[in-house]
């Protein structure tokens, strides 16, 4: 277990009202006390804050005017002594305080090391630790709500209960094998094993059913806006973002590159990509943009295909319909304030049942209908962030799929009448996969890799 004292800046770098330098470890209070002119921190009560000054031991000069929070173990995030020094938010001020602390015996924390210590000391499990970063990166209120519930242990509690059910089943089999002479121990029959494994399997399948929604809430829906030049793609992006991020002109081919922006559409975070119009071009810069657009198309979860109400359907439009065949898309017929030249019946045929929304972005008409279509496409119009336990982490989803496969193999073995000690191998594998989610059976290498993705100071 780590015994040194770590420190880092825990607020974003830049100018602001305040910045926080955090220390955690056995010498957090004593190191700070040696630099602090104010109340004797060694005598201060836990979870109190004190005014004073940081004195540079080298020059004996006042380095900064601060407020120091003292939090004593074990009732802290890391279950170690923690000190947070609140100083002025300028880059020079906060870096000077950090440098003085480092020169006084603390070590610069690695990315995610504060949260890693909370995990290693049993303050949180691995899924709760990962939820900390999900909370920081949340793009919508609902994504934040899901992360908070995971931090509170909703997913952890469910996983622990499933593991306990499996453990009891395996233990029952072991008793039957090792102590067959015990008449008072009920024999684990194939029917009992099938019933137990089926119950756990159904719960895992329920988690996987909403995993797609959870992943979208966590990572955002990769959404590409495509269409011929000058059909209103950039105007659509500006309308959704509600500010002018893309240049809108009457000249075809204005968008020369990929523009990305996160948009909150009825609780659904869209990672919105405004692409260059996909067409044949000799302009070398525009040609690069078109190639990038084709790649974005392949990687998108949702495509917003914009057509012009004032233009007839062209060969380029038809090629785009062919390019997105089999993908998830919504057709947007824009510029309905102008004269109709588009054959709506033909568009309806080519859309193959995908949603069609009409808009006049210049008149701000049809935007609500578009947002409703996006939400309905992925969440049947509503997102239940209340009672459902969402699985949003790709690692968790993969482990749940592995657990499901192992249980299905166990049930297949039961149906074939295989010996119980053989069937229990797959049940034990499921128990181990579920343990990796909360960190009970995770390797040190995996733990180090996960925490290395955290931001410095968290």
From TrEMBL:
EC number(s) on file: 3.6.-.-
The record's note on quaternary structure and interaction partners says:
Homodimer. Heterotetramer of two MnmE and two MnmG subunits.
* Domain of life assignment: Bacteria
Q: Which InterPro entries match?
A: G_TrmE, GTP-bd, GTP-bd_TrmE_N, GTPase_MnmE, MnmE_dom2, MnmE_helical, P-loop_NTPase, Small_GTP-bd
Can you quote a single GO CC term? cytosol
Look up the record and name the cofactor or cofactors this protein needs.
K(+)
Kindly state what the record says about how the cofactor is bound.
Answer: Binds 1 potassium ion per subunit.
Could you tell me the keywords of this UniProt record?
A: Cytoplasm, GTP-binding, Hydrolase, Magnesium, Metal-binding, Nucleotide-binding, Potassium, tRNA processing
Q: Provide the species name.
A: Virgibacillus profundi
Question: Which residues are involved in binding (6S)-5-formyl-5,6,7,8-tetrahydrofolate?
Answer: 22, 84, 123, 458
Protein name from the UniProt record: tRNA modification GTPase MnmE
Query: Which PROSITE patterns does this chain map to?
Result: G_TRME (PS51709)
Q: Which Pfam families match?
A: MMR_HSR1, MnmE_helical, TrmE_N
Job of this protein: Exhibits a very high intrinsic GTPase hydrolysis rate. Involved in the addition of a carboxymethylaminomethyl (cmnm) group at the wobble position (U34) of certain tRNAs, forming tRNA-cmnm(5)s(2)U34.
Q: Name one GO molecular function term.
A: GTPase activity
**UniProt binding sites for GTP:** 230-235, 249-255, 274-277
Subcellular location as annotated? Cytoplasm
Q: Which Gene3D superfamilies match?
A: P-loop containing nucleotide triphosphate hydrolases, Probable tRNA modification gtpase trme, domain 1, tRNA modification GTPase MnmE domain 2
Residues annotated as domain TrmE-type G? 220-379
